[in-house]
Specification:
Two copies of one chain form a homodimer. Chain A is mainly β. Chain A is globular. Chain A is built from one helix and nine strands. In chain A, strand 7 and strand 8 form a beta hairpin. In chain A, the strands form two sheets. In chain A, strands 2-3-8-7-4-9 form a six-stranded antiparallel barrel. In chain A, strands 5-6 form a two-stranded antiparallel ribbon. Chains A and B meet through strand 1, strand 4, strand 6, strand 7 and strand 9 of A and strand 1, strand 4, strand 6, strand 7 and strand 9 of B. Strand 1 of chain A pairs antiparallel with strand 1 of chain B.
């Protein structure tokens, strides 16, 4: 069984060559989402949230999927693909958390996101602090790298 | 442009009729992920994480997508689809955070997840506390409902 995804908008960023490995909340430049106008009504009350999840199509990844990867900032460490945030995944879905700065019609101004300019948007979900902020979580194997 | 998604495993839960609206960490019964064996190597070092994101195909949703919704636990409140976690979305991708209890080969034992039994798995990503736990986030419009 296969599922087809359809872009519902586009993510605009200053990154035309290479995005950073993670969202950079203080990155300079314009970061915004243009939701297709026919979906704008679905943003009602979203402005009450500080943060949102952005799901997007990692459409610029060209490398083949490898099950063991070395994150670019962690030379010498080999981890499983599912223990990494590598964009080269069996299903190319990107997931980032960004701060919502403003909503105007179908445009959402956000803080820095780790996506190439004109990345296809798949979904926006509210980041709910009481559900999503796990204070007893850890940084896993990354902890050793600090 | 369309993207095709392919299941990389299956989520097993006790829910054959209706899942809860959110993951229930203390739910009784067996909750586990069967990753397709050919991807098992990609789990290397994942056991170092407390929590993981599970992305899945909301394949049992039959209702049409509506841009304004009333969450079942919030009678009388109408919010935009993107300000809700409704499963009836333009792109049927579910996102849940669960605690990782054990990994054995290609099987991951997890805490309660809000997915129907045999839901197709799309991705597993590590939940990284320093990136994903936003202590300055809020509960948005839900806050008023408390």
């Amino acid at each position: 069984m296969e599922t087809k995804l359809k872009p519902i908008g586009v993510i605009r960023t200053p990154y035309t060559n290479k995005p950073p490995h993670q969202p950079e909340p203080d990155a300079e430049g314009e970061f915004y989402i243009e939701l297709n106008p026919e979906f704008a009504e679905g943003l009602h009350k979203l402005e009450s949230y500080t943060y949102v999840y952005v799901l997007f199509h990692l459409d610029r990844t060209t490398r083949p999927v490898k099950l063991l990867v070395t994150p670019p900032w962690a030379a010498g460490v080999q981890v499983g693909l599912f223990a990494s945030r590598s964009p080269h995944r069996p299903n190319p879905i990107g997931l980032s958390i960004v701060r919502l700065k403003d909503i105007d019609g179908n445009r959402l101004d956000i803080t820095g996101i780790d996506a190439m300019d004109r990345t296809p948007l798949l979904d926006i979900k509210p980041y709910v602090r009481s559900l999503d902020c796990k204070n007893d979580a850890n940084d896993g194997w990354r902890h050793e790298r600090r």
